[in-house]
Records
---
Amino acid sequence: MLSDRYKNDQKPLLTLTKQQQLQKERIQQHIDEKFYTFEEPPCLICNNPSVEILAEKDRYGLPCSTAICQSCGLIQTTPRMNQSSYNHFYNDDHRNLYVGAQSPDLTYINSRIKAAEKTTTYLAEHLSLSGIRILEIGCGIGALLYTLQKRGALVEGIDLSETYLEAGKNHFNLNLHTTDLFQLTPSTTYDLIIYSDVFEHLLDPAAHLQQCKKLLAENGTLFIKVPGVKNIMRPYLNDFLRMLQNAHITYFSADTLTNLLSQNQFSPLHCNEQIMSLWKPHSQAAPAITNYFTQTIRFLKKKENQHLLRNVLSIAYNVKNKLIR
Ligand SMILES: [Zn+2]
């Protein structure tokens, strides 16, 4: 474990609203009553079962085991809920815990548009957007597709949440469908397939990558945006524990994402630690997997030591101020 802070003491790191607290208790009850079923698959990249546990709880104080693969360095949630338990979790529990509401309001929609504009700027820097056919997997209300459509792209989105899709259809008048990637029967291929804050939720990312290859046009591009393990400074106040949530299956760095994508015959056009990344499929043999275990553990332990030191200094500073008064 990274430090004692990561023990399963049920204490949340975040300050929860009343609704989030109630939702957390409901999820805990589902876990205690074995309503949710858990599974422990081998590593999603290298298939090795050997892991080192980093954390026993998530940022909400829910029991959630986060581990790092000793053979490749991928950080993943294990044990994790199986697909049918996650389906239930996303339908009933997730939004109330994560967003604090079950349906999107105008504040939420506006915040999504603001985030989408940043992503669209990144995409426009690397690709010509005008006239290209785009599919977004897990598009939610479709804010990103809306901003891409304004740049001249032909957009389409799929999601399993009808509430969010309906809000998107009503608000943006977009071409959105309630389905998953494997049920989709498109009449065309796509120049760009997008996973924006979705890929880290997938139980079988390799299956998604293989399906994307079938749906991408010749010279098509795959875009993946996930929270980056090495980019915790701003979004998570330099605290890895603040990043952890039971809805996330994987936590990537640019290196471990490259490991996964290259095993599935995708090569990088661009990938940063934020992580915003663009990939091209190819048909050459997959390279050997590189092991980033030692490097990743060293990075996380350094960050944790810095966090603990900041806490000590902050306590000392407060004590000194009290004494002076
Ligand atoms: Zn592995």
---
Amino acid sequence: MRDPPRHAHLFPGSRRERRYSRRLMRILPVPCLSDNYAYLVAADGRREAIVIDPSEAQPIIAALEREKLGLVAIVNTHHHHDHVGGNEALRERYGDLPVYAHSSDVGRVPAQTERVEEGTPVQVAGLTLQPLHVPGHTLGAVSYCVEDVVFTGDTLFIAGCGRMFEGTPEVMHASLSKLAALPAHTRVFCGHEYTVNNLRFAEAVEPENEAVRKKLAAARAARERGEPTVGSTMADELATNPFLRCGEPSLRARFPGAAPSDVFAAVRRAKDDYR
Ligand SMILES: [Zn+2]
Ligand SMILES: [Zn+2]
């Protein structure tokens, strides 16, 4: 379930990828479909990887072979087809891999074998994933923290957030607030390349926000180079993402509401109508 891929023309069929080397793990964003990202994550020095949100199998298989990595688990942030579409084909190819998704998504995530709950870490491939239950986009949405990184699926985008298909504004706002409370240096990897359009909207609602202007210029430049914009920081999101700024005077002035979740609901409605 996606917003229209308004900037898909910037990366038609692009399979360019960027590697993020971290001290304790490697993260490889794998572009899938028109604007999705799956991620291969491998603990440093290990040849086993997990895949987060394989939209489709083929780009994942190609990336595993190129990187000489073995696949040992599938991890899903939510049940939408553009995040789980490759589950079954990957299991056909690599064997009966464990498939992790929220306990409430049993029956909705293809081939799910493991029931994820917040508070119960997932240990796999030398990695420890801390699940955060973040309902709103869907009721079973999970974000996964690994070291100082968070994989947010369609809950938190760079400078945006997912639509509320299965949650109320109160629920979605609470989930985003949970993510916003992560340490400021946390790196954010999300499920779609919507950044430029999201920042255009952010600029429209906060034209005086210099951080938005700078991040939009940087995002446009990255896209023109064919690079993903994922790997933002929570500090950047707090400075630029209107959905995390519902308590700021600038947003409250434009979107009056009694509670931050009312402001959030109004900003979300404005984004739904934004072209
Ligand atoms: Zn999606
Ligand atoms: Zn979704």
